[in-house]
Amino acid sequence: MFARIMAVVLAVILLTTVLVTGVWWLTLRNRQIDARLDYLISEAEDIAYLAGNLSGDSLMDTIRDRDSATRTYLNRMADKVNREFGAYIAVMDRGGNVMTNSRVMDNEDPEFMESLNTEEINEAFQRILAGETIRLRSEGGDDPTFTVGVPFMMDDTVTGAVFIRTKAQRIEGGLAEILGRTALLAACVALVSGVAVFLFVRRRMKPLKQLETAAATIAEGDFSVQVDEKQGDPELRELSGAFNTMTRKLQGVETGRREFVANVSHELRSPITSIHGFAEGMADGVIPEGEQPKYLRLVADESRRLSGLIDDLLALSRLERDDAKPEMTVFDVNEMLRRAVIRRMNDLEAKKIDVGCEFEEDSCMVKADSDRIEQVVINLLDNAIKFTPEGGKISLESAVKDGIAEITVRDSGCGIAPEDREKVFDRFFTADRAHTAGKGTGLGLSICKRIMEMHGQGIRLLDTDEGAAFRFTLETSNCTNP
After folding, report:
1. Which of 72, 85, 148, 413 has the smallest number of Cβ neighbours within 10 A?
2. Residue partners of 238: CB distance under 8 A and separation at least 6
């Protein structure tokens, strides 16, 4: 990922550098061309100033008199322009008198002189004599050319023109060297920028690289990995914090999964070991025939325990499916509590437990899945019966507060130790810690908790001075008096 980002960044830097360099070079090129043309016009204006102080006859006399000071000065100025630009220079007045450096140009660059177009020159002179200062680029001929021209005046009247033409390469020349230096400078800038961006991006990407490495570690099953939450921008620090929170939760889930597997293995092994041992003892004659009915009863008890464990596991698995939803109906929860007492009446009478129902109203209509809620009530009642001693007391209560029904199951048993209170809803947790036969699977309260979560309600252990009390809530539909 880092390599792809760097490739994109460097490509953007390179493209930007090329574009900026290209625009800058074109701007510089045009400025240099304009500067050279301005210089030619300035030279032409100097020549025009000198020529403008001469009349037509004086210009003719100057042309004929090769030794005159004026002609010498004009020739000197023309030589200067010619040396710098290899230009053809012509001075013409309205009378058609012309003074040029054609002889010099014929010797130095005859091909250029042959390429001069008389019609273009005459047209340019006409424009200049009309009072216009010209600067033109012509593509005619083998090589493009630049032409500048200025009029000279006497008494506010145009009396003649100065014409200068040179090859375009003399004006545009030298720009290749500038381009080379510009390209070298651009390459250096791009290199320095690339290195700076590389270091900057690598520093910024370091937290992401750590996240990538940590994610790969998690994919291999190691959920203990953590990343530095103090590096990078606030967004990256926030992402790192969320990532660490996720790994801690995953580690908790993994720990719970391993404990679940270990507990299931233990719970399954205990009854199976007992059944196997008793069966082997009876088959081998180790257990006398007179005692075999007692051990057959133990085998039956362990079989029921094993069947109950499997049923609870299947029930919990069904409840934890993503598509598990309660089938909501409206029913009287007080009537359900009465039926639960009747269903467990034999167990209650066997332990001589006094059971009572304390309802605020004779009927309390709630909206819930009646089968699931009945399972919760039976589980809580079974736990109460299991841990209440003979002659104890159990009460089932219902009350309504702010449109929410509160169902409470209390017992007068030994209660739950303070260190175990936070674990009572954990899977396979039993207060006796020994998982001995007849003490249950430790899944009943986990099932109750899951059912209440499906209803969007809760179940909790109450603080009591004696015994234990569990309370769960339900959404009321309509509570009425008898």
Report:
1. 72
2. none
Q: Are strands 329-332 and 404-411 parallel, antiparallel or unpaired?
A: unpaired
Of 400, 416, 434, the residue nearest 470 (C-alpha) = 416
* Distance between CA atoms of residues 43 and 54, nearest Å: 18
pTM, entire model: 0.47
Among the residue ranges 43-52, 74-83, 147-156, 169-178, the one predicted with the least confidence is 169-178
Cα dihedral sign for 337, 343, 347, 350?
positive
Q: How many CA atoms lie within 13 A of 371 on its CB side?
A: 6
Between residues 415 and 205, which one has the greater pLDDT?
A: 415
Distance CA 146, CA 37 (A): 8
Domains of the chain: residue spans and CATH: 2-176 (3.30.450.20), 223-324 (1.10.287.130), 325-480 (3.30.565.10)
pLDDT at residue 213, as a whole number: 81
* pLDDT(62) > 70: no
Q: What is the chain's length?
A: 482
Ranking 130-139, 192-201, 268-277 by mean pLDDT, the lowest is 192-201
* Burial of residue 252 (number of CB atoms within 10 Å: 0-12, 13-18, 19+): exposed
Is the pLDDT higher at 305 or at 473? 473
Instruction: Name the packing angle between helices 175-219 and 234-284 (round to 10°).
Output: 30
Provide the CB-side half-sphere exposure for 346 (13 A, CA): 1
More confident residue, 323 or 121: 121
